[in-house]
Amino acid sequence: MQLSFEFFPPRTSQGKLNLKKTRQELSAVNPHYFSTTFGAGGTTQDATLETVLDIQANDNIAAAPHLSCIDSEKSKILSLLKQYQAAGINRIVALRGDIPSGVRDIGDFHYANELVEFIRHEFNDHFHIEVAAYPEMHPQAKNMDADIKHFVNKIKAGANSAITQYFYNADAYFRFKDEVQKHGIDIPITPGIMPITNYDQLMRFSNMCGAEIPRWIEKRLSTFGDDSASLNAFGFEVVAQLCDQLKSQGVEDFHFYSMNKSKPSLQLAQGLIE
Ligand code: FAD
Predict the structure, then answer these.
(1) Which of 35, 103, 171, 228 has a CA positioned 20 to 30 A from the CA of residue 265?
(2) How far apart are CA 237 and CA 234, in angstroms?
């Protein structure tokens, strides 16, 4: 079983200290890699580089930077990739990213498949390339078939494997995998697991990224109010059941959206390897 954990790059010195502690605690489950988001939620791109280099130099765990290509130039992406290569990094999560509002000139890349193609062309097989997958459909896709076709294009462009957007309905994940296989694609598609610890934050993220919170879960979560202990206990139970279900149906690898906290993901990960 391969476990990976995702962080966002902290902006404050306290945030950096907290993340160091989180990384140390998560090391207990021998992660395959730690990934760091890029430019998401207004974080700066320099902060990604700093976090990734720190992980690669100090953690004894492979660092995997996310890299989004929208609103960027080939020369800038190339220079960043060269810095990663020089630091011994060989795994990249290649993304389009979200188009910033008001931006007309979106730069040298339009979609993630073009970034994948560019990395392969410039670096041959140096990088293991992960791409994003959306079992419940990317919110801007015309329909599910079109989204799957675009996903397949990323694999044909040279991606090795994928990480999914989070979901709470395992059927969506298995259906997505089956449909991708019908296109003759058989690559690892690792479920992205989002622990449930904060009702407002989860609703906000899910509205943005198009992940569905099943009605029964939402209704329960909305009743906890300030009782975070009960919310955490319920959230843990729901997500642990999802992980068990995925595992019992053959899933071997799991990627956790840690939100820079160790406890929620660690508990789930420990449950999986017991
Ligand atoms: P793409 O695969 O390019 O797809 C984007 C949309 O365009 C889809 O609707 C697709 O169907 C459509 N499309 C693709 N090709 C074509 C085509 N040729 N013609 C027409 N339509 C097309 N965001 C960040 O900013 N930073 C991060 O670090 C980050 N990390 C992420 C990690 C994971 C695991 C996931 C699942 C998402 C992450 N995101 C991140 C969010 C992601 O950037 C957004 O979801 C973004 O809107 C799409 O990126 P993508 O790489 O999936 O794009």
Answers:
(1) 171
(2) 5
Distance from the CA of 129 to the center of ligand 1, in angstroms?
14
Ranges under pLDDT 50 in the chain = none
Q: Which domains does the chain have, with CATH numbers?
A: 2-273 (3.20.20.220)
- For ligand 1, residues with CB inside 6 Å are 37-40, 66, 68, 93, 95-98, 111-112, 132, 138, 140-141, 146-147, 150, 154, 163, 165, 192
| pLDDT for res 42 | 59
User: For residues 120-140, b (16+ Cβ closer than 10 Å) or e, as one string?
Assistant: beebeeebebbbbbbbbbbee
Give me the residues paired with residue 206 across strands: none
What is the reported pLDDT for 41? 58
**114-126, pLDDT tens digit by residue?**
999 999 999 999 9
For residue 45, how far is the Cα from the chain centroid?
16
Q: How far apart are the first and last CA of the chain?
A: 11
Is-catalytic flag, 6?
yes
| 13-23 confidence digits (pLDDT tens) | 999 999 999 99
